[in-house]
Amino acid sequence: MSKKASRIVILICALSALILFALFLKDILVPFIRMEVNNDVDGAKELLRSKGILGFLTVALVEALQMVVVFIPAEFIQISSGLSYPLYIALILCDLGVCLGASIIFVLVRTFRIQNESFEKRKKTITRLAAKKGDKNTVLFMLLLFIMPLIPFGAICYYGSSTKIKYRNYILAVAGGVIPSILTSNLMGAAGKAFIRDSIPLWLLILIIVLLASVLFVILFFFINKFFLKESNGTPDSPVYALFFKIMRLLCWRKFKVTVESGLPDTVKAPYFALFNHQCFFDIYFTSFVESDTPSAIVANEYFLYHIPMLRRLPKKCGAIPKKLFTNDFVTPVGIMRMLKKGYPVVIFPEGRLTPDGKTNPIPEQSGRFYKKLGYDIVLFNISGAYFGKPKWRKKRFKTKVQMNVRRVIKAEELDVLTEDEVNDIINSAMEHDASEEDFNIYRRGGKAKGLENVLYRCIDCGALYTTSGKGNTFRCSSCGKEYHINEHYRFDEMIDGEQGTISRYYAKIKEAEKAGIDSLDLRAEVRTVIFDANVNKKAKEKGECRFTAQGFEYRSESTQFFIPASLITAIPFSCGTEFETYYKNELYYFYPVNDPVQTARWGLISDIIKEMNDSNER
After folding, report:
1. Both 555 and 495 in a single domain?
2. Domain of residue 26, residue span
3. Which long-range contacts (CB under 8 A, 24 or more apart) does 101-104 make?
4. What is the pLDDT of residues 483-508, one digit of tens each?
């Protein structure tokens, strides 16, 4: 069957399912609930009796049609049937509906060769799991897929139908495999009925639903790990990895519309490196939109992976690779090499931190040596549109379009002839980006300047420190009264040095002012300090003082004292208006300024200036 004809069949099924479900709501569910609320038990029973086979048939047909369509969630009709009928009837109706849908799919695939685009999007995941499992028993594999929480029933049936499995075995696998999920949804519906009929407290209803979902998830997770994907633990094929990105999509789909304009070239096969510029906190989520036959292992900040003790096992199960920011360690290279040898791509953000002003941060010069030594293909992606959706200085997320494209591919054989400096130059060029130059997003809302002082901490007109503030769409200095107004393109209406004013140009002017006084710099801050040991366990809290000069960084407290020469400082990462941080002897120090917390951005910028000056002197 042609793709156009397949789409017509799916569309008809989808419309039929929606119409039937609407009729079920209108003629059965809503009147039934109304009678239950009014304690009209006899009327409710008479309603169901009068609808008889028609009601039963509607539940089964809606369940069947949503299977064929795939993208319509089955939970709607399953919970509704649990509300309307006794549990055993609801379970039988839904299971019969699933079997009917599975039979329709079997005929459509085997006889008419129908193509379902929703299934095709998930086909790679299913076939990869089949390859990893290496199990020739399709029935067993289908049963295991049914208890996995992230793959729709319809997609599994399309997969089963595309194999050589016999119909009898196929339908038995379907009928048995879907029971746990149907039972849970029906029980949720039954709990809703109890809430309506018996007036149980709302908190108890919510607790019942949460507990049911949690129990099902725990049971499924146990079986998946124990009997199916045990060998995938600690890799991106782990179900925890898929669940993480599923949750991220639920949290982010309304705010970020992600488009991959140019994806992974056909000439690149796993394993390989995928490098991305670092625009916002959700960049890891954006990487999941790049279509690949193999999921990627992600190099991420060790602190974010492990600082919550009860969750620290999850990143390990996902195959995440921890990195101590801007310090040499052996764990990260070993983790990268292990994932590459297992055949997984590795995602790296070579800047190592979020951009403060929308322009790409400097990339460590040793990158070229590292990639040449390992000798794998490098795919250089560039993310645009993400920065103003959620910059590091603003708490709220704005709706934004995010675009990704491949700017360059460095093949393994090309690495052999390129020098380290040439590799560095290619990476820097591909990562280069200035969010203020984008034109495809329009931001017509207010609050665009709120929090901007957390990066633009100095007035470029009068030079005053910590006197700037953002309110609404206006950025203002309280010392000289100068105002900058942010337009719908997230640029200033005012000019800076004869050019269109932007956040990155304002930040560059602050950098010029800081650089002019760097030789006489003596930056000090009274801080509250939190110290983490080598395993990111909280070790101590104390009060102390930080000092930064052109010679280096110094920290003193009653129990601790250390000095890091400027030549050894690559960068000082910071969280806007909160803290700045560094490693010393493999321990992580978080410094929280007691006064003027916006100064955290200054410590980060000063470290960049000193690093650039030292690199320039070395050349």
Report:
1. no
2. 3-224
3. 101/63, 101/64, 101/65, 101/66, 101/67, 101/68, 101/153, 101/154, 101/157, 102/67, 102/153, 102/157, 102/160, 102/170, 102/171, 102/174, 103/167, 103/171, 104/64, 104/67, 104/68
4. 999 999 999 999 999 999 999 999 99
